[in-house]
Structure prediction request, 569 residues.
Amino acid sequence: MAINWDEIQRWDPKNLNSASRKLRELRQGLMAEADDTDGAKKRIRSTGAAVKAMKTSLGSLNANLDQLVNDISELMMATAAAAEGVWDVKTKVAECTSFAAEHTYLKIDAEGSVTYSIVSSGSSAFGKDPAEANRVASANASEDFDRYRKSEELKALIKAAIDRAGEVDDAYDKRLKAVGDGTYRSSETASSQSQGLPDLPQKGWSATEVAAWWNALTPEEKKNIIENHPDDIRNLDGISANARDEANRKVLDKELERARHDRDELQKKVDEEGFDDDNINPYLDDKNKADKRVKDLEKIQNLMGEKEGDGSKYHLLTLDASGDKDVRAAIAMGDVDKASNIATVVPGVGTTVRDSMDGELHKAEELRNHSGSDNTAAVAWIGYDTPDSIWSPETRGTGTADEGARSLNGFHEGIHAYRQSQGSDPHITTVAHSYGSLTAGTAALTTKAGAVDDMVLYGSPGGRATDVHQYNVPEGHVYASANDKDEVTGKGGWWQGILGGGEEAVGMGKKPVELHGVKNIASNGGGHDDYWNNPEFVEDASQIVANEDPGVDRSDNQAEAVTKPPAKK
Prediction:
């Protein structure tokens, strides 16, 4: 039977995630039985026909159990892949319904057909001169054509959702049939480190598949990977936060040692080359970059050395020292694997690990303390290459935000996937400043439904969207703040004067405070870097992180009153 629109609206990955967990438990039980059977066979020391028959029977049973473990492992991974696909379909359905909500003249019926209302040629032109009547008729015709084009866009989105659902269903069906008819064969036997499963994560796996695989491993298998293959998992989305922390700590010293060696070698080249008549040394720029990388890693090493009680105060969830740019890192406070609420602090221009991580961790700590440290984890996420300054060429476009958005989405979807595999669903909030709000807003355009529950954008030049419905965040859960003297957002942005077209002209979308449907939280009369000096801003943001006051919408703030447009009629 063909998959239809009415059906896919009810698709939800939770059921498949639950099935994957049950298959994991079944696999673990079968492996225990196989071990018991193998042990029983090895303990038999007697001889004779009856004993020989018993050994043969136990051997046959053991072989059957091994095959069952392989089959269940494949079913588990196939179900995880299907869950990821259903999650994708659910997101596409949400995009369709949001598109219709954005364009209220569009309607989707139960079969997925799209209709739109026609602008009346109306009586407004009747009784007027012919020229006025023709003008009104022409305007209405133009609007009707625009509505037709939007209806075609929505039809294409609905078709894409249904087509994707068909792909997911077909792929899952094929894998199930392969197990059922015996055409599936696993190369991962009982002699493998992880029977029925790859010993290491596979290229192309989704976060949901990674989570299913990781959770199926024994504690000994996980320990072996962390000890011997940390690079394969330390920044892998879908792995537990604690495992990422352990693996990143394993390589931190080596990364620092390598960075210091590279810096020293470049210093030698600088000294050997010297400077020409124009005071130019071809190695100086690379040496200066190497200096910065050493400082980045030294800062992380110092932070990781701080202890609180019997455990670490900080957890190193991301460590990316690849390339020749600044080191990218995400450091968490609290238990991301168990916390009910998780906040991700995303900074803007001029943010580096070496100079800014202390300040970003302070913001994370404030959010955690004010939202309930027992139930909240907060992450200082410097997981992208922030522009150097407000005047950097990168700030006049969206390329850096696009790159950062992909990393941020992967980070959040990885946390969500791992927690779903554990049977929990944390409340995740993004709290993003300045260019970081552009990065977070860009991420929200494509993040999977349910990964991010709330978004706070403050000091924002633009959040990429031109309508709040474009964000894959629940309706009514996008918040903004704009200080009265903030030249980046409160007075139109630096780019307006530079480019003569405002932030929308360079693809940054509207300032979030100007989007209908975005709720205002506290600001003050300060500038671009003064938000956290206002206790009311901290309080509002913390309540959102704690999922205690999703309805906050302040109307008594001067900056809000100036920047927020009247509600649509």
Remarks:
- The longest strand covers residues 376-382.
- Residues 241 and 337 are 6 Å apart (CA to CA).
- The domain at 313-563 is CATH 3.40.50.1820 (Rossmann fold).
- Confidence is low (pLDDT under 50) at residues 121-127, 558-569.
